[in-house]
C-alpha cells in the first residue's frame, strides 16, 4: 500500500500543528496556542517532539522586548506529512471498494 | 486510530482556519450597501437635481462646494462601512469562539487594503488634476482588485463580488456620464446582494 502511517501524527495536537505548518510559511507559539486551544506545557512538549524528529524547525527572535518563537516545517517534515496523507487517502479508497 | 475520514477532515479544517479569515459578517455587507445607496442618493440630489435627465452633467461637479460635499460624504461612508464590518465581524468571531486577530485576519486585511489605499490616493490625485469622470470607475476597479487579492485569505465567494466590481468599473470607464449610477450599483446593490447571500449561507 502506498503512503506511510506516521506515528508522529497519531496525536491530534501534532497532526494539527503539522497541518497548519503545511499551509503557513511560519507560525508562532502564541498563535498555535490560540488556534489549538491547548496549554503551554502540552503544546511545548508536542512541538519539542516534532522538532526532535526534525519535522519542524524553530527560530527565535524578539519583537520589541518580547521573545517570539516561530516554527516552520522542514522538507523532511513535509514529506512525512505528505506520505501520511497518502496513507489516509488510500485507506479510504480501499474501504470503499 | 480514529477514522481516516475524520482525520482528513480535521487536517482540512486546520489548514483553512489557519490561513483564512472566516468571520466576515454578511450583515455588515448589507449595511455597507445601504450606506452607499443613501450616499449615492445624496450625490444625485446635489449634482443632477433639478436637471433630471441623467448622464452628461459632469461639468456641474466642478463647482467647488459640491465636490467638497461629495468628498466628505464618501469619507463618511467609508468610515461607517469599515467600522460596521469591523465590529460585526468581531462579534461573529466571538460567537464562534474563534480569535478575531489572527495571522489569517491580518493577511486578509493587508491583501484588501493595499490595493484599496493605493486606489484611494490615486483617485485623490485625479480629483486634484480635474479628471472627475474617471474617479467612479477607478474606485470600482481598485476595490474589485482588492477583493480579488483578498479572496485567497477569506471565504472564496468574495472573488465573485470582486469580478462584478471589475466589470462594472470597466463599463463605467467607457460611459463616464453614468459613473454615479454604476457606482451605486457596485457599492450599494452588489454589497446588499452579496451580504444577503453570505448571511443565508454562513451566518444563520
Tell how many strands the DSSP assignment of chain B holds: 0
Report the β-strand fraction of chain A as a percent range: 15-25%
- Cα distance, first to last residue of chain A? 14 Å
Query: So what's the overall shape of chain A?
Result: elongated
Question: How does the major sheet of chain B shape up?
Answer: none
Secondary structural class of chain A:
alpha+beta
Note the total helix count of chain B. Answer: 8
Spans of chain B of at least 5 consecutive residues whose pLDDT stays below 50 are none
Report the sheet with the most strands of chain A, covering strand number, pairing sense and barrel closure: 3 strands, antiparallel
What is the string of SSEs of chain B from the N terminus onward?
A: HHHHHHHH
Offer a concise description of the structure.
Chain B: The chain crosses the membrane at residues 21-46, 66-87, 108-128, 134-153. The complex is a heterodimer of chains A (97) and B (204). Chain A is α+β, with helices and mostly antiparallel strands and 97 residues long.
Walkthrough of the structure:
The complex is a heterodimer of chains A (97) and B (204). Chain A is of the alpha+beta class and 97 residues long. Chain A has helices at residues 12-23, 29-36, 40-52, 75-96; strands at 27-28, 56-63, 66-73. The longest helix of chain A is centred in the last third of the chain and has 22 residues, at 75-96. The mean pLDDT of chain A is 88. Chain B is elongated. Chain B contains eight helices and no strands. The longest helix of chain B is centred in the middle third of the chain and has 32 residues, at 64-95. In chain B, helix 6 (135-150) packs parallel to helix 8 (179-203). At the A-B interface, helix 1, helix 2 and helix 4 of A face helix 1 of B.
